[in-house]
Amino acid sequence: MTHRQRISMIAVMVLAALGLATTGAGAAAAAPRAQAPAPAAVISTPVTGTFTDASGGTGAFAGTFTPTGFADQDGSLVATGTLTGTLTDAAGTTVGDVDQSVTTPAAVAQATCRILDLTLGPLHLDLLGLVVDLNQVHLVLNAVSAPGNLLGNLLCAIAGLLNPIPNVGTIAAILNLLLALLAQL
């Protein structure tokens, strides 16, 4: 594995740790604000899909999305990049190639919040002849924040009350910085 591949893998893990994932490859109607310049080389994400071909059969799209920047568009995080790929019809014949710039919404993926991490050392109790010996206990409680997880959402919100909440523009700036760093490798 080359140095560039290692750094790229680290960047992917950082993005995954931030919990950000793209949610589609459709073009957005309005242009994003505060767009960073496009880096030379970045990580590509595979994109696949289906369509109805001219004969009424199901064709396939296979390609990649290469992000070139992130922005705050009307309070929502969007990713702008290049979508490249090939369209093949139901018979397996190449119908066309795609190489176009697209803007797509980016969403925050499922998050886990540490609620409690408690370690109790060994314990020895002698209660009037009843002896209780307990080895070390390590209790970890995590809340999972996701749609439909009412208690997990509530506990994550409470656990994060004192943490500053970054706005969409700040998240876009951080992601653009990561893309710029990758381009310098």
UniProtKB/TrEMBL annotation:
Residues 1-27 form the signal peptide. Keywords: Signal. The keyword Signal applies. This is ABC transporter substrate-binding protein. It comes from Actinoplanes subglobosus. The lineage of its organism: Bacteria, Bacillati, Actinomycetota, Actinomycetes, Micromonosporales.
